[in-house]
Amino acid sequence: MGLLLSDGWLVIASATHISPRLGLSQSLSHSKYAWFVFNILSHYCDKFPVLRERKRGTKTHWCVDVVTRALPCFSDIYSLFYVNKKKVIPHNIYELLTPVALAHIIMGDGGFVSKGTYLCTDSYSIQDVVRLMNVLIIRYDLKCTLHRSNENYRIYVSRNSMGKLVEVVKPYLITSMYYKVGIV
């Protein structure tokens, strides 16, 4: 769940396929996280993570891609997270946002800024971001605010809630990602 709430995706490869495959792409600097995810998902994969060159404008970046096989077990998850092929926050996010899922959101798409943690929810509508933020407030008792980034919205977990956040997610974070919650 956390992979999909961050940079992960599900895709049905073509009109002839009926099952989706799960994928994740991380920058080369976060390759430890990509390999961590691969170790969890390896029984769904038919190949090792792939090093790929990605161009954004005039810049070239290297990333590590983890992609599973297309499998029927991902179909129900696909229907939760995609409406008309657009990724959304599921309506039952309260039940889905476990401490493990929250840790993966942070590892995949979080950042530590001003003694708090941002969740980069840029690809979601404001309604989806507010739904996710409400779960963080109600389920985990975190002080959160909504911030605008260009035309998108992000969730900021306040410095006043970092102790609670760390307590919830630290058992599930890999050590190379501790910095995303201010642990050095």
DSSP summary: helix tally: 7
Major sheet, described briefly?
A: 4 strands, antiparallel
Oligomer kind = single chain
| H/E element sequence | HEEHEEHEEHHEEHEEH
What's the domain count?
2
Strand order of the largest sheet: 1-2-4-3
Class inferred from helices and paired strands = alpha+beta
Shape: globular
The total of beta strands comes to: 10
Please tell me how large the radius of gyration is: 16 Å
- Can you identify the CATH superfamily of the largest domain? Homing endonucleases
Highest CATH level, the class of the largest domain: Alpha Beta
Give the distance, in angstroms, between the N- and C-terminal Cα atoms.
26 Å
Q: Helical residue percent?
A: 25-40%
Question: Percent of residues in beta strands?
Answer: 25-35%
Low-confidence stretches: none
Average pLDDT taken over every residue: 93
* Overall CATH architecture of the largest domain: Roll
